[in-house]
Every structure is written in C-alpha cells, then in structure tokens.
Design a protein that fits this description.
This protein is mainly alpha-helical and 107 residues long. The chain has five helices and two strands; from the N terminus they run H-E-H-H-H-E-H.
C-alpha cells in the first residue's frame, strides 16, 4: 500500500514538473495569437487568468479579430501596464493580411 502511494507521489511530482516546464517554455516560445487562442492558451500568458482570458474571447467574438496588439486595451481589465507585459507574448497573426491593398501607380 505504501509503495503505491509513493509511486503516486512521484508520478504527481513529475507531472507537476512537466507542467511547469511546459508553461515556462510556452512563455519564451512562439507568441500566442490572441485572435485564435483558446482559453487555456490565453491563461498561459503572464498576467492573464480565467477572467481576463474570458474577457478577451468575449471581446473578440463581439467586435471581431484584433487588428493590432494595442487593441487589447479595449478589453476590460487590460491597461497599459498589463499590455506592456503581454506585448512580447502575443500577436494578432498576419498583419499584412488585414492591411488594405496598396494603391496602384499605373498611368
């Protein structure tokens, strides 16, 4: 019985270590696209908990995709300080895709 409990504790510890390592890797890795991110992906960002992740998703669903990272300030609970923390962690995707086509210079 004690042997089984010991294995469970070791397994739990290893899982916890793996989760912590994965979370820190995600924060240092590829930026999270706030226009496509899931609740869990948003919550992996420093400074974003369940309430702010939900607010980002609700804002995105109501107003459409974010055109730039600065638009996150329009989300309830996100101000200048949090935005500066989020800026290196997030993206809005391919900005060129959202930009208008340049005017033609043909005469």
């Amino acid at each position: 019985m004690k042997r089984v409990q010991g294995k469970r504790i070791v397994t739990f510890g290893l899982l916890l270590l793996l989760l912590l390592a994965t979370g820190s890797w995600a924060a240092e890795g590829k930026p999270v696209n706030v226009n496509t991110a899931t609740m869990a992906e948003l919550m992996s960002l420093k400074g974003i908990g369940e309430a702010k992740a939900r607010a980002i998703i609700e804002h995105r669903e109501k107003h459409g995709p974010f055109k730039n990272v600065d638009e996150l300030k329009n989300v309830s609970g996100i101000g200048d300080k949090l935005l500066s923390t989020l800026r290196p962690q997030v993206t809005v995707g391919d900005v060129a895709q959202n930009a208008p086509a340049p005017a033609s210079n043909t005469k």
